[in-house]
Design goal:
Layout lengths: L2 H13 L1 H10 L3 E5 L6 H6 L2 E5 L20 H11 L8 E5 L3 H13 L5 E4 L8 H22 L5 H25 L6 H10 L5 H17 L7 E7 L5 H9 L2 E8 L16 H11 L12 H12 L4 E7 L3 H17 L2 E7 L7 H12 L2
Parallel strand pairs: 1-2, 1-3, 3-4, 5-6, 5-7, 7-8
Helix pairs in contact: 1-8, 1-9, 4-5, 6-11, 7-9, 12-13
The structure holds iron/sulfur cluster.
């Protein structure tokens, strides 16, 4: 198959998650919804369950307004909206982490608004690196295991977790390889997004198999030339209209620091005797993310390093509206880009936005600076 055929397969998965969920259910599998940003998917997978991402959608918010004020991020609001409207019917439970204040409220609202799908909290520690932080993470994972046992009738074993860790580590490696190949291969911003988005709706072993083939085909294919090269950073880069504006203006995404994309694949579970300890250690080892406490803001240095490493000429910040953690990071990113001689642009994104006319004008003006 050609690269385009593999991309078409991933586009289908990215655009029809419900079809994939129904396929898994018809195979007798149980599906567990996983909310942003990090959940122990290895654990869920090891219990024979299918973890599927829920990051909201570009839908109108009506019912969720009864639970949320207007000034909260639309990812949260649309997850709840879709839950209330029955879009996730069939899943056995939803795991919601506590990584930002909005996420904490999602779990509490879910309990009342979507009573038929059990809410499983995953509480992460603020200080994730010291021994007591790792212990806290491990206790959170044990709570998830016990809640999944009740909600889905699934059983846990350390041996199965060790196997799932291998599956996820391989997927991480293949996705990192894709991100590097995509920095030069001929690929649109929308196609690049499809590869990352589809990963949320397929079992990792299935997604790994397709992306391996895609990587091989892309390596043989032509390179993108003559485009403006940018690094994109933010929570989500998933708006088809916005990605089309980047493509129409000859802007190539050469790397990303996006929570829904590469941030998921940076760190593997280390090789340790006990797989639960290893999984908790993985969370401790993670860095360079808005949601992970870091008073030194090393994420800012990471963005500049990666922009340089991938020969980017500029950085586009996709700022999720009403996302406090991301807003706090913007000024240091802007200053660091200026110091490094990188052009930068801040675009506000929202799951509710249908008209990106203003963003289009800003992107056009940004492109003319190259
Ligand atoms: S987009 Fe921001 S506010 Fe919304 S859930 Fe993610 S981190 Fe929290």
């Amino acid at each position: 198959m050609t690269a385009n055929e593999w991309l078409a397969k991933l586009h289908e998965a990215a655009s029809c998650p419900k079809k994939h969920m129904e396929r898994y259910l018809s195979q007798g599998k149980k599906v567990v919804a996983v909310a942003p940003v990090y959940t122990p998917m290895e654990l869920i997978h090891s219990m024979g369950l299918v973890p599927m991402g829920v990051w909201g959608a570009d839908v109108e918010i009506k019912e969720a307004k009864k639970y949320y004020p207007a000034f909260i991020c639309s990812i949260m609001q649309t997850i709840l909206e879709m839950g209330i409207k029955g879009e996730y019917d069939g899943v056995s439970a939803i795991v919601i982490p506590s990584l930002c204040d909005s996420l904490k409220t999602l779990g509490q609202n879910w309990k009342y608004a979507v009573k038929e799908i059990p809410f499983i909290p995953m509480s992460y520690p603020q200080n994730r690196k010291p021994d007591y932080g790792i212990k806290f993470t491990k206790a959170g994972y044990q709570r998830v295991i016990s809640d999944l046992t009740i909600a889905a009738g699934a059983q846990f074993s350390e041996a199965a977790l060790a196997e799932s860790i291998k599956v996820y580590n391989e997927h991480n490696q293949v996705m990192r390889e894709f991100a590097e190949i995509a920095s030069t291969a001929r690929l649109t911003a929308a196609e690049r997004n499809d590869v990352f988005k589809s990963a949320w709706f397929m079992l990792p072993e299935e997604h790994t198999a397709v992306v391996k083939e895609l990587n091989a085909a892309l390596k043989e294919g032509p390179e993108d030339e003559g485009k403006a090269r940018v690094l994109v950073t933010g929570i989500l880069a998933d708006s088809p209209s916005l990605l089309k504006i980047l493509d129409d203006n000859g802007i190539k995404v050469v790397f990303d620091d996006v929570a829904h994309e590469s941030r998921q694949y940076r760190i593997d579970v280390p090789d340790m005797a006990n797989p639960m300890d290893a999984l908790a250690q993985k969370f401790a080892d993670m860095d360079n993310c808005t949601l992970l406490y870091d008073k030194e803001k090393k994420r800012v240095d990471y963005i500049i390093e990666q922009a340089k490493a991938h020969s980017a000429d500029g950085v586009i910040v996709l700022m999720t509206k009403f996302c406090d953690p991301e807003e706090f990071d913007y000024v240091p990113i802007k200053r660091a880009c200026e110091a490094a001689g990188l052009k930068h642009l801040n675009i506000e994104v929202d799951r509710q936005m249908v008209n990106y006319q203003q963003a289009g004008t800003m992107i056009q003006a940004f492109k003319e600076m190259f």
